[in-house]
Amino acid sequence: MVDSVEKGQQIQWTDSISVPDFPIIPYIEGDGIGSDITPAMLKVVNHAVSKAYGDKRAIEWKEIFAGQKAFDLTGEWLPQDTIDAIEKYHVAIKGPLTTPVGGGIRSLNVALRQKLGLFICQRPVQYFEGVPSPMMHPEKVDITVFRENSEDIYIGIEFKAGDTETKRLLETLKNQYAVDNIARPENTGVGVKLISEHASKRLVRQALQYAISQEKEHVALVHKGNIMKYTEGAFCHWGYDVAVEEFAAKKVEWGYEIENPNNGQKILVTDVIADACFQQVLLKPENFDVIATMNLNGDYLSDALAAQIGGIGIAPGANLSDRDALFEATHGTAPLYAGKNLANPSSLILSAEMMLRHMGWSEAADKLIQGMRLSLKAKEVTQDFARHMEGVEGLSTSDFAQAICRHMR
Ligand code: NAD
């Protein structure tokens, strides 16, 4: 690992990303198992880059701080320097962060997404042969979720039951807006759900562009608009508007159809009610390619989908704006395993694979995936997978990283 920033250069962004041969990439180690999985990820990425490009390219890693490590060093959970560094270098990667209890911050992850304007959470969910799964045919799961990251109830506008303000708000709703089904305003909490045209459209726009660039056949807008018409329902309408106005979509029986300008294939854009979607991704996962949805639906759906392919330990994620990208392990800090060299680093390693593709370093990304696929196929896995596999002894975090490197050809 190169930690000193010597010959490294900044990734630039004008109309698109421009990556030098020795880019400086900031990383946040993360709390709990962060100190186990982040060194494993750095080792695997460095090896993949070196296998792909020899000494012509290398990443110069720059550690930045958030969470407990930041608090111990600076007295702040999320220092401004960390936000500035991600904005400056455009691409960064992070381990999981503890949510400080009783602090002023609800969640460091949410704070990072909001401060950096990372409005998309992209979660590709695909199966790797050899990974234990509760599904009979987990190989049929290959779905990328585009979850809106900036609004919905995650924006955190909440009013506590019993507070004077809350009672006043509920009385106003009752009297001024004739909301007549608030049975007990004196002990009812309130959460505000915000869904805007702007945020819905930019999310769906990115999902459609992804479907075009990755030659996918189906984009599903997932919502609960049958119940929440002006938020979830509006998201669906605005999504279709983007398809029609910006991608020349034509009405067909089940939704709309876009012609992919790259290959002439049709992309079907449909909408699916959220509860039905949870059933269908279990029964017919092969019918789904790309899902675009709001924050809360996306939160539930991406973890449920991850379970279908072996769990959040192997599901990667990226938080994106038009310019900046923060790749992250999708699981938490797993305090039970912290510092024991036992945790599964796959989620963070596969997030790094997304990062390499985002940078246009697809040869290194391919090496990384090859190493991961062959390790898993050879049953060289960490203990969380091994305990569901007969006769398989689990590897430590570092030995698993070593196995991935060994399997890169
Ligand atoms: P968690 O993801 O840490 O753990 C859930 C379960 O999965 C536990 O049984 C854990 O041992 C297991 N697990 C998770 N990652 C694993 C891995 N890589 N290898 C093996 N097993 C793994 O969720 P939690 O317990 O709800 O949360 C713990 C802390 O993490 C909380 O402070 C929470 O706020 C935080 N958190 C952070 C993020 C993030 O940084 N993106 C996400 C979720 C939770």
Automatic annotation (TrEMBL):
SUPFAM superfamilies: Isocitrate/Isopropylmalate dehydrogenase-like (SSF53659). SMART domains: Iso_dh. InterPro entries: IsoCit/isopropylmalate_DH_CS, Isocitrate_DH_NADP_dimer_prok, IsoPropMal-DH-like_dom. Residues 24-404 form the Isopropylmalate dehydrogenase-like domain. Transmembrane segments: none annotated. Its cofactor is Mg(2+); Mn(2+). It comes from the Bacteria. Gene3D superfamilies: Isopropylmalate Dehydrogenase. Signal peptide: none annotated. Keywords: Glyoxylate bypass, Magnesium, Manganese, Metal-binding, NADP, Oxidoreductase, Tricarboxylic acid cycle. Its EC number is 1.1.1.42. It is an enzyme of class 1 (oxidoreductase). Belongs to the isocitrate and isopropylmalate dehydrogenases family. Homodimer. NCBIfam families: PRK07006.1 (NF005425), prok_nadp_idh (TIGR00183). This is Isocitrate dehydrogenase [NADP].
